[in-house]
Amino acid sequence: MSFLNTIRGFGRSSKKTKNNGDGQPLYSHPNSSDSPLRRTQSPTKSIPIKQQRNNQVSFPNPESPSKRSRSGQPSSHHQSRSPRRSGRHTHQSNYSSNSINNNGNNDHELPLFLCEPFIKTALVKGSFKTIVQPPKYVDYGEWLALNIFELFNNLNQFYGVISDYVTPEAYPTMNAGPHTNYLWVDGNGQTVNLPACQYIEYVITWISNKINDQSVFPTKTGGVFPPNFMKDCKNISRQMFRIFAHLYHNHFDKIVHLSLEAHFNSFFAHFICLVKEYNLMDRSELEPLLPLIENFEQQGKII
Q1: Nearest CA among 116, 145, 147 for reference residue 129
Q2: SS3 for 287?
Q3: Cys staple from 195: which of 25, 46, 141, 168, with CB 3.0 to 4.6 Å?
Q4: ∠ at Cα 201 (285, 10), nearest 5°?
Q5: DSSP conformational letter for 135
Q6: Bridge-partner residues for 181, per DSSP?
Q7: Kind and range of the H or E element at 152?
Q8: Using an 8 Å Cβ cutoff, are 209 and 71 in contact?
Q9: Backbone φ, ψ for residue 251 (5° rounding)
Q10: Vertex 53, ends 48 and 59: CA angle to 5°?
Q11: Number of C-beta neighbours around residue 117 at 10 A
Q12: How far, in Å, CA of 221 to CA of 263, rounded?
């Protein structure tokens, strides 16, 4: 039975099931896929994102300076010299992987995703390191682009399952736990708090535009990856991680309710293995989920 069928009736899953007639799961182990290596289909066509609410501004092309004054840009971890990448986030962590014990005495103090048995739940045993390493004779840029393309599609699907619960009233800020809050940088360079749904939808649209831009992610024969390709991959990975962090800290209970925790944990481990393999993020940027990452490293899921 398709994993999408198990979540029919929740969130936007029924809509996605209609659009995805082949019954593909939200996330599956890459070794079990017989699909060819290609990235020719736009993620926004097969996985429609949630329509913007009436009180939201339109999301312009991030590369268009003339429109930047009407909308924001996805913020980055550090203050940047470039106004297109500027941004801030506030963070303070008061727990680490050392607070996890096998006796479960501190489980009531930990987020659900750090508690047993959920933290040890996964689709497969072993590490994803060999999966993210580029095969012989495969272009480095093409391999990295393919992985980011597929991981973004899967993340978009997971968010689609619980997106109807991410309301402005319930989640007025883009937080990743009580000590981390991600801020949006508007067109005037001002940092503002946005509801999580609006922040995520802006980010999804921004990433979709990047992935579908032939000058950034070329798919045509003879296409050349630009000099700033790796820089774009790092920015995309940073924003994807923020969505992961928000889902883990605020919606993992819903994922457990749908019996998708094994898929989500394996998916996240796959993503972090890619991040580590290509040095896409600094370890300090992983702080909101660092206890989970360190535990996965101890289990051998992440190397």
Answers
A1: 147
A2: helix
A3: 168
A4: 105
A5: P
A6: 90, 175
A7: helix 140-162
A8: no
A9: -135, 15
A10: 70
A11: 7
A12: 34
Contact (Cβ atoms closer than 8 angstroms) between residue 186 and residue 202: no
Residue type for position 43: P
Distance CA 149, CA 1 (A): 25
Q: Give the residue among 10, 32, 6, 7 at the shortest CA–CA distance from 270.
A: 32
Amino acid at 232: D
Q: How many domains does the chain have?
A: 1
Among candidate residues 273, 271, 268, 234, the one with its CA nearest the CA of residue 248: 268
What residues contact 222, with CB distance under 8 A and at least 6 apart? none
Q: Please, which pLDDT band fits residue 223 given cuts at 50, 70 and 90?
A: confident
Give the CATH number, domain containing residue 178: 1.20.140.30
- Beta carbons of 213 and 101 less than 8 angstroms apart: no
Q: Max Cα separation, the chain?
A: 59
In this model, does residue 167 exceed pLDDT 80?
A: yes
Question: pLDDT per residue over 117-130, tens digit each?
Answer: 999 999 988 888 88
CA of residue 106 relative to chain centroid, distance:
28
| CA of residue 189 relative to chain centroid, distance | 24
For residue 148 the two structure tokens come to 């980011």
CB atoms within 10 A of CB 210: 20
Those residues with Cβ within 8 angstroms of residue 282's Cβ, 6 or more apart along the chain or in another chain: 77
Its domain, for residue 234, covers: 3-299
240-262, pLDDT tens digit by residue? 999 999 999 999 999 999 999 99
The HSE-up count of residue 134 (CA atoms within 13 Å, CB side) is 14
Residue 135 preceded by cis peptide, ω within 30: no
178 exposure class (CB count in 10 Å sphere: 0-12, 13-18, 19+): exposed
Task: Report the C-alpha gap between 214 and 218 in whole angstroms.
Answer: 4
Instruction: Identify the DSSP state of 50.
Output: P
CA 205 – CA 60 distance, rounded (Å):
9
| 154: its two tokens | 């899967």
**DSSP for residue 78:** S
